[in-house]
Fold each of these.
Amino acid sequence: MPPDLHVLLVEDNPGDARLIHEMLRVAGPEKIHLDPVTTLEVARERVQTRHYDAVLLDLFLPDSRGSETLLQMAAAAPECALVVLTGLEDDQLGLEAVQMGAQDYLPKGGVDSRLLLRSLRYAVERQRAESSLRRSQEAYRSLIDDVFDTSMVAVLILDRALNVVWCNEATEVYFGIARERLLGRDKRLLIDEELKCVFADPQSYSARLLEAYETGAYTDRFECHVLAAPGRDERWLEHWSQPIRAGIYAGGRIEQYTDITDRKVLEFAERAQREFAEALHDISTVLSSSLDLNDVLERILASLSRVVPHDAASITIEGDEQLHTARFPNAEVISATAPSVTPWHYAPFMRQMLRTRAPMIIPDLQRDGHARTALGELCSYIGAPIQLQEQIIGFINLVSVQPDFFTPRHAERLSAFSKLAAIAIQNARLYDSSRRLATLEERQRLARDLHDSVSQTLFTCRTISETALRRWEKDPARAYELMRDVNELTAIALAEMRILLLELRPAALTQLGIKQLFEQYLQPIQERRAFDLVMALEEIPALPPEVQIALYRITQEALNNIDKHAQASRVEIRVQDQAGNVILDIQDNGLGFDLDAIALTSLGLHIMRERAEAIGASLEVASRLEQGTQIRVNWKRSETR
C-alpha cells in the first residue's frame, strides 16, 4: 500500500479548497493528509514547524501574486515538492514556474482527481530524487571545495586528451601559477612552456612525466626541487601520478605533489652534520699527521673549505713573533677584487674577538668604512678565535666576495674547527719546543763527551808528551814507551772525535752497511769503557735509512746505560738476519735490575722503546739481579716498507 502523503494546500478560495479536498479523498488507496491555509505568510510559517511531502500552491493569494509567490514558497520549503494549482492557464507562466522549482503546473479547470493525485505522486518522487541528487552534489562539492581544494597536497586531474580539468589551491601555491593559466590547457605544453622551469632539474622532471603520459603507466614517486621566485617559495615536492581507469575522465590521469620540505630539511641537516663530523675526523687525522708548525698552518687552511666555503682564508698565530699565513681558494676572483691581505687588515676584528672570545660575522664589509678601505671589494667576513683552554693563541679569518654569505651555522662550524686547529698548533709548538730542547741536550751531551773523552785524552797526551820530552836525553827507552802511549791515545781521541762528528752528521750513519757501521764507530771507543766489547755481526742486506739509524741509536743508548749503571765486564752485540727478520741482541754480564721497579721509570729504556716503535720493531728486555741484562730488537722486513 502506498505511503500516506502530507500535503499543504495554499488556496484562498473556499470552494476550490473543498473541491480539491474531495478529489484527493476519492482519488486512490493512500491516505492524503490535507492541511489548508489561505495566505502565503501562514504557509511559510507552517512549513517551518510541520513536515509536508508536497505543497499545492495557488499563485494568486491575498498577500502575494504571480511568480513571486512561487519563489518565496520554494525558498521557505526547499525539500517539499511544489505543484502549482492555479486558475490561470498560461503556458509561458507554467514554463517559468517549472524553471523556478515547481515540479508541475496544473490549471484548475483541467484537473480531475486521478490527474491531481498522479501529479502529486510524481512530484513527490521527483523532489525526493532531486533532493538526494542535490545532497550528493553538495557532498561532492564539499569534498572538492572543503577537502581537496584546501588540502596541502597539490592535485591535478587530466582528461583523456591530457588537458587539465581541475586543480586545487595547493597547486597554485606550490608552482606559483594561477589556476586560470592551467585549466583547460594541455599538460604536455604546460610542462614545456611553464612548469619545468619551476624545478631545479627541469629536464629530468619533464622526461619522467612525458614518458608516463606516453605509456599510460603509473609514475613512481620521485622528488623534485622547486626553486624560489616571486610569488613562489622554495620547497621540495614528492610527485606521484596514475591513470584514471573509470568515470567521465577515464583515460586521463591524476597527479599529486606532496610537500616534503620539512623532511628534506631534516635529511639535509642530518647529512650535513654527518659530513661535518666525518670532515672533522678526517681533518683531525690530517692535522695530527704533521708536527711542523708551518705545515700544520697550511693544512689548517687547506682543510677549511670542507668546513666553511669561502674565497680567501688566513690564519694569524700569536707568539714570540706574529705568524700570518693566507690562502686563496678562489684566486681568480680574489686577485681582481682584493689587495694583499695582512694581519693589520683584520686587527679591529681580532681585537673584538679577543674581548668576546666568540666568532664574529660581518655581513657586508662595504658598509664598514675601515673594512672597505682595507679589504678592497671583499664583501663578507667571518672569523673565529683559536683558543687553547683559557688562552687565545690566534685567529682564523675567512672572507667572501658575496655579501651576507656567512651564517650563524658557519660560525658554529668554524668554532668547532678552531678547537681542532688549536690542538694541532699546540702539538706543533710542543714538538718544536721538545726538538729545541733535544737539540740543546744533544749539544750539552756532545760537549760533555768532548770534555770527558777527547779533551781528557788530549790533555793526557800532552802531559805524557811533556814527560817524554824531559826524559828524551836521560832515558830514551822510557821516552819511546811514553811516545808510543801518546800514539795510542791520539788514535783513541781520533776515533772518539769521529764519533762526535758522526753525531753532528746523522746522514753519515747510512753511508755504510750496519756491520761496517758498528765495526768502525762502536769498536774503536770501547777501550775507554770499563768492559770488553764483543761483536758478532752478520752481513745484512741494505736497510732503510731510518731503520739503520734507529738500530745504531738503540745500541749506542744501551752501551751508555751499561757503562753508567751495569758494572759489566763483558758486553756482546749480535746482529742476525733470520728469515727476513733483523734481530739485534745486546747482552751484558752486569748487575742486572728488577724490571718491574725500573722499566717504567727508566728514561733510557723509554727512549729505546720509542725508537723501536718508530720503525715498527719490537723491543724486549730481560734482566735479573746479578745475572746481567739482554735487550732484543726484532725488525721484520716486508715488501711494503
Note: The first strand starts at residue 5 and ends at 10.
Amino acid sequence: MGIRFMHCLRYAAAALSVTALLTVTACGTEESTPADSNKQQTATEQTSPITVVASINQWGALAAELGGEDVTVTSIVNTTNVDAHDFEPKTSDVAKLSKAQIVVANGAGYDSWATKSLTSSSNIVSAASVMGAVEGDNPHLWFSKDARVGMAEALTDAFSKTLPSKKAEFKKRLKLWKQSEQSMEDWADDFMKNHTDLAYAATEPVAYYLMADLGFKDSTPKGYAQSTASGGEAAPADLQSFQKIIEDRDIDLLINNTQAANEATNLITGAAGRSEVPVVKVSEQMPSDSKTLDAWINQIINSIVDAVDPDYGCDTDQDDESADGTDADDADKTTSSDDKSGSSSAGDTSGTGEKSNDSASTEPDSSDATNADEEDQDITYIRECKSSSSNTSTDENSSGSTNNDGSGADANKDDAQSSGDDQPDPGK
C-alpha cells in the first residue's frame, strides 16, 4: 500500500513537471515569433514628414524642394532685412533648432548661432562641411554651383537615412533638381564662352562665387576688399581707388549688396551712376517671392547678362522665325514660354505655381509649410529676355535688378520688414 502510494506520487510529480515545461516553452515561443517582431518594427518606423530647420532661407528653400511633401521646413532667417552675420536667435528659435530631426546650416562663420547650442548627436547638414570651407573663407556658399550640388546630395542622403521608406522619392527629386540646375549652368556657360575678359567690382563680396562661375575677373581694389571682408571701414585711399576704376570704366559692372548699405557703398554706387557703369543689386537672403534657390539665382544671372549684353539670347530674328514656325525650337531656348514668363521675378521661372517651403520661424503664429511635389517634371531655367515695352527694375526683390542711377544700396527697405520677427510666410 505504501509502495503503491509512493509510485502514484512520483507519476503525479512527473506529470506536473512535463506540463510546466510545456507551458514555459510555449510562452517563450510566443514572445519571439517573427510576426510580433515585425509588428514592433513597423510601429516604430517613421511615417510623418521629417522636421527640418534651416538657419537661412537659401538652404531652407533647397531642402524644401528636394524633400517635397516628405519634409516640413522652417527657416530661421528668411527676410532680406535681416543680416544673418549679426542675427541673434530668440529662445523659440533655439528650441526649434534643438528639436529638429535635421538642421541645415551654412557654416564658415556665417551662422554660428545656429549650431553653437546643439549637441554632438544633432543631425547637421552644413554647406561649409560639404565644401571644406572654414571661418575666414567667403561664406556666401549658396552662390557656388559646386556647393549647391554638394548640398543637394548631402540633403538627399540625410533625408533617405531619416525616412528610408521614401528613399526612391528623394533620389527622384534629386535627379530632377540636377537636371534643372544643369539647364541654368548650360545657358550661363554659353554666355561665358561668348563673353570673355569681363571684369566687375563689388561693394561687398556677396556674389564672389557666382561671378567666378560666370568667368568674371574680380577687380575690386584689394585694400577695399580686405577691409570689408573683415567687417571694417574702407580707408579714404581705398575709396579713391574704387572711384577711379569706375570713372575709368575699367569694370563692366558693379555688384552692390543691398543688405550692406553705408556711406561708402552709397559713394561708390553714386560714382557708378555718374559714369554709367551698370549696377546689379544682389541681396544675401533670398527674397520672399522667389520660389526656389535656383530660380532666384537664375534671375540674378539674367540681370548680370542684361547689364553686360542685354541683347544676348534675345535675337528678334529668331522670334520672327519662330512666329513663322521655321525655328520654334531655337526660340524656345532664348525666350520664355507660357509657364516660364519673361518677367524679371524669380518666381516666374518655375512654371508650377508652387510656393516656397521655408517659413518664418521667428513668428510664433507662422505655420510650417510643405512643398508640393514636382515629381512629374523638372524646371528648365533659361535666358529671360526683357520686353522692350516693360524694361523695369526689380528693386522690390532686392536682388537681380540693374540700374544706372547711382541710387543708394538700401532700396529694398520700402517693403522689407523691420526684423525677422514680423514677416509674411513666403509659403503662403
Note: The chain has three domains: 2-44, 50-180, 182-352+378-414.
Amino acid sequence: MNHEISNSAIQVDQVSKIYKLYSNPTDRLKEAIHPFGRKYHSDFHAVDDITFSIDRGETVGIVGKNGSGKSTLLKMITGVLTPSSGSIRVNGKISALLELGAGFNPEYTGLENIYLNGTIMGYSKEEMDQRVEAILSFADIGEFIYQPVKMYSSGMFVRLAFAVAINVDPDILIIDEALSVGDMRFQQKCFRKIEEFQESKTIVFVSHDLSVINKYCQRAIWINEGKLMDDSTPEVISKKYQAFMLGTTLKTVGLSVASERNTKTFVQPLSDNLDVLGDNKARITGISLHDTLTGEPTTLIKPNQSVQLRISVQANDLIQFPIIGFSIKDRLGNVVTQSNSYVLEQAVEPLQPGGNYIFGFNYIFPALSRGEYMISPAVASGTQEEHTQHSWVHDALVIQILDHRKHQLNGLLILEDVEFYQFE
C-alpha cells in the first residue's frame, strides 16, 4: 500500500536490523584484531528491508510466528533499537507496551514508576499529578501501587503499564502481545479503551489472535523471517497466514506425510507441547478439519460449512469398546459443542496393539460467531457414563470462524433465517 508521507504517523523505509552471530565467544576478539579483517561471524537479519507506512488514525495489526521479527520492528519504531539500515519517521508522541516490564524500574513502587514514565514522556510532576487518579482507577491494583513492581504478578504489571500508556495522551499507541496476559475482564476493559482511542489515535498491535486483528484493525501486516510478506486487509492476511501456518506444519513431518496430503486418509499430525490427559493405552496422533467438497485441510471455517473432522489414533494396548470423540471450545474455554461415537450409536471395533486408525466425523459446522475456537480430540473406552480416558488432547486444533456479514452482534451463536415484522 502506498501512503502519503504527509499523512503518515509512521513511515518505515527499507529498514533492516542485522545482528552478528558468533559461534564462539573468542571469535569476536579474533575478528577485532585480525590484521586482514577476516570475518568470524554470520549475519542474522532480524528485520530485512521492510517498507510500509501507517496513516494517522489507522489501527494496524502485525502478525507472524514467534521469531519473525515483529518485536524487533516495534522496538525500532519506538526508538529502543536503532536500524542497521533504512529510516523510520514517527510523527507524534508514542506510548508503547512492549515486553513485560519494559520502561519500569523493578525497585521503584508502582506510583514511582508512574511518575518515571511520565518524565520519559516529557510531562512535569504537576502534569502527572493531574493524571494519577485516572491511572490508579484504570489499573485497579489497590495498595499494591505502593509496593515495588518486582513483587507484581504479570497481570498486575500489565494493568499498570496499560493504564499509564493510555493516560499520557499519546498520538500513537503500540502494543506487543501485552494484553494476552491478565484476566479476561481486564482485557475487555482494555479493548473498550482501544475502541475509544480509534476515534483519534493511531494504534499498532501485535497479536496471535486473528479474531482480534479482524475485529479492531483496518489493515494487517504479515512478517515472516524478517521480511514483509503482505500488507492488506485483515481478512486477506488472516487467510494467507492461516494457510501458511498449516503448510509449515505439514512440511515439518517429512515427505512421507506430505505425499499423502491429497489422499482421503491424510490427517495432520499433532503439534508439539500439547497438554494430554489419559493412561496412554491409546493415543491421539493427529487431527485435521477438511472441507467436505474439496477434501483439503483447512482452519478457516464459514458458519454452516460442510466439514469432515479426522482423528488418527495409535493403540498401544488392546482397547475393547473404544469411544472416539471431540469437543469444541471458545477462547474462554467454554464448551460450545461435542460429540462421540458412543452417543452417535456407532460401535467401533476393538483397537489392536500397535494398530493405527483414522476416524472421521462429517457434520455441518455450527453457525458460531466470528473468532477463534479450539477442537480437543479424545479416545476412551467403556460407555458415556462410565469410561476410561486413554488420550484427551487439549486444544489440539485452532480454527478461525469467518463471517462476512456487514454487522456483527454479540453472542456465541448466529441466529439463522430470522424474520422481523411489525404488528398492525
Note: Residues 248-262 have pLDDT under 50 and may be disordered.
